[in-house]
Specification:
It is a single chain. With 492 residues, the chain is mainly alpha-helical. Helix 5 packs antiparallel against helix 6 and helix 9 packs across helix 10.
Length: 492
């Protein structure tokens, strides 16, 4: 179901692209086969799926024993809904309906599809390297080195590597579905039940921790995919410090959002339905409104063998997932249903600023309403301090997001301006007409940090003037051995 949107975006494997930029001399660094990396993302997604499913099932049995029919019903719903969608997604990605694999289909009926796929990926990985195989495709990427140098790279992709990449791509889809169609409502429900019942069950606490980890991982996958979509001609590699910054950014953003919604629900329960439906409907119909405004065609964005009804169903499910993501955190991508990849390649900084500004205002309003209409349960809690902590937590999430784009973005050297330039321009505007006149003649920034400035797109060759000079081939020799052993494919 989600394959249509992210199959081409996560290009860990790709055919030769004719439009890939190269240096003027046409020299490319040829990289041979590297050791196959273990499918860690597949193992992590499978572990989160099994842990959340089993814990939710145990908690549902406990609700059944205590005759809590409402909690049990919602817990089972948020447990089964993502599980069923994940089975359909894996079948759709691997195209098992047209193949003779009855055992695999039977395991999917038992909701054990991710376990079977994980076992297949492990078997392929441990069999890799035992016999020599010919490559099935060639991949070309540009590697960004220190001092802004761009080194074109070309390497061969074998059948084993291609199969593992297919498994990784499939489990990235399942991680997003699990996180935002199951884990986010499950975490909200269990936190609300804990406050209402005024005690913490160990199983419920374990489920909340697992769901929070699942949500953060799903948000990280969305952020990495967004980078790979926009810079698909480059070899994207994120450092551990970048992942740590993204974890803090996404963790604080999701935790404060869920807490604000739950607190508001405890005070004004029926109004929560209105708030949730408004958010869901707005983000669901926003891509469709843009699609109708652009007068796009339904048959252009999805596979050709789909009927118009099938295409509409797939797009509706995809926009539903997009809306569920944006209810809790920034999706990092914008839908473009007129594009063949269904994703808008251009980064919309204006939408990013509007989203976080609007979400901060909404959280502030929700927390303020809870503060005035809270129940007696919070009489032993310092509520003003809690309100301040939630607001500061969301602000810290925005700060870590800015730090990521400023210092840790893997393609920050391609940006024209950085955040310092943006703040400098804002300060200059306050200085008067003379300062504003001089601001228009400022020289271009040569900082290697990321940007948050609304700037027009420029060709890649204009972003780095040094690319027009003949490359120093001797400087590549010292890094050739390092490039050969670098990661062939990065797991999200």
């Amino acid at each position: 179901m989600c394959e249509v949107a992210v199959e081409e975006q996560d290009r860990e494997i790709t055919d030769v692209e004719q439009g890939t930029p190269v240096v003027d001399t046409g020299v490319m660094l040829v990289v041979n086969h590297s050791p196959v990396r273990p499918p860690l993302s597949v193992l992590l997604a499978t572990a989160l799926y099994c842990a959340e499913f089993i814990t939710a099932a145990v908690l549902s049995s406990m609700y059944h024993k205590t005759e809590d029919a409402i909690w049990m019903g919602f817990t089972i719903t948020f447990m089964l809904l993502p599980a069923i969608l994940i089975q359909f997604t894996l079948i759709f990605v691997h195209r098992d309906l047209g193949r003779d694999r009855p055992l695999v289909l039977f395991l999917h009926l038992l909701l054990l599809g991710p376990v079977a796929r994980c076992f297949e990926a492990l078997v392929v990985y441990f069999r890799a390297g035992k016999k020599e195989e010919s490559y099935v495709t060639i991949s070309r990427r540009i590697s960004l080195k220190n001092r802004g140098r761009e080194i074109p790279m070309e390497w061969e992709i074998g059948r084993t590597e291609r199969t593992l990449a297919t498994h990784r791509n499939a489990f990235k889809r399942t991680a997003i579905i699990q996180a935002f169609l199951g884990s986010t409502p499950q975490l909200t429900l269990q936190l609300y039940a804990t406050i209402q019942e005024k005690y913490v069950l160990p199983v419920r606490l374990a489920l909340m921790i697992i769901t929070l980890i699942s949500i953060i991982y799903g948000a990280l996958v969305c952020s990495v995919l967004a980078i790979q979509i926009r810079y698909d001609e480059y070899k994207v590699r994120l450092r551990p410090t970048a992942y740590m910054c993204m974890i803090l950014w996404r963790g604080l953003e999701i935790a404060t959002r869920v807490t604000a919604l739950v607190l508001f629900t405890t005070a004004l329960t029926h109004w929560t339905i209105l708030v949730g439906m408004l958010n869901l409907l707005f983000f669901f119909f926003l891509p469709w409104a843009e699609f109708w405004a652009r007068k796009g065609s339904l048959t252009e964005g999805v596979e050709k063998n789909f009927s118009k009804v099938g295409t509409t169903v797939v797009l509706c499910m995809f926009t539903l997932l997009y809306a569920c993501i944006n209810i809790y955190c920034w999706s990092a991508v914008q839908l473009d249903l007129t594009h063949k990849d269904l994703i808008e390649k251009k980064q919309r900084w204006d939408r990013l600023a509007i989203y976080y500004s609007g979400r901060f205002v909404e959280n502030f309003i929700l927390i303020t309403l809870w503060y005035f209409f809270k129940s007696d349960f919070y009489e032993y809690v310092c509520t003003p301090l809690l309100v301040v902590q939630l607001l500061i937590g969301y602000c810290l999430a925005v700060v870590f997001m800015l730090l990521f784009y400023q210092f840790f973005h893997p393609c920050r050297r391609l940006f024209k301006h950085n955040i310092h330039d943006c703040l400098h321009c804002v300060c200059c505007r306050k200085g008067g007409n003379n300062e504003r006149g001089r601001q228009g003649r400022l020289p271009p920034s040569y900082s290697t940090a990321a940007t948050m400035v609304l700037a027009a797109e420029e060709p890649v060759e204009l972003l780095d003037p040094r690319s027009s000079q003949p490359p120093d081939l001797t400087s590549h020799l010292a890094e050739r051995e390092t490039d050969i052993v670098e990661d062939l494919m990065e797991a999200a």
